[in-house]
Amino acid sequence: MREHGIAGVSARTIAAAAGANQALIFYHFGSVDELLSAACRAATAERVARYVDRFATVTSLRELLDVGRALHAEERRLGNVSVLAQLLAGAQHDVRLAAPTAAALQLWIDEIESVLHRLLAGSPFAEIADIPGLARALSAAFVGLELYGGVDEAGAEQALGALEQLAVLVEVVDELGPVSRRALRSKITRATTRRS
To answer: What's the domain count of the chain?
Structure first.
């Protein structure tokens, strides 16, 4: 996909790159789409496994963003952002690519959700936050920023800076005393009740 783009990926180009007979693709995977799906899942699982220990040591939302920045830089250097863009583009029109691409992204979402549950435990934000939804929003933001950074690197950095400001706000709220936290919880409860 890095060389030919998703439209240029075929049994012939894959077999040529692998130095194998293209019949083996169909024998082992059934189709080029199934091969791409298996490769996507395997590559993503390997990438996530490399970051599990880093996710486990994150103690703040700012640290989570730092891990995201490091991940972004490494994925761009390895050319994985280009592959992700190709898969996302292909999945828009090919349902056979959509499910495995979503499943691969879910591996990242699961890790982020686990970190968010741990970081927000006991926080006033935990009472109103849809943590699985927030994990998806953060994942989608990083995917978007990875793609956007290719055309406007300064703008992507500015967006990451804005996310860091929100992380600082969460830290400040978490450091409030008990009286202030009760007042904040009361305001949050009223605000969410009105919204319902």
So the answer is: 1
How much is the pTM? 0.79
Q: Residue 185: its pLDDT value, please?
A: 73
Residues 41 and 103 sit within 8 Å (Cβ to Cβ): yes
Please give the Cα distance from 136 to 130 (Å, whole number): 10
Q: Is residue 3 part of a domain?
A: no
Give the 3-state DSSP-derived string for 5-62, with helices as H, strands as E and coil as C: CHHHCCHHHHHHHHCCCCHHHHHHHCCHHHHHHHHHHHHHHHHHHHHHHHHHCCCCHH
CATH number for the domain harbouring residue 136: 1.10.357.10
Q: pLDDT (tens digit, 9 = 90+) per residue, 86-106?
A: 888 888 888 878 888 899 899
**Could you tell me which residue, 81 or 60, shows the higher pLDDT?**
60
The rounded distance, in Å, linking the Cα atoms of 81 and 139 is 14
Closest CA to 105 of 121, 126, 91, 119: 91
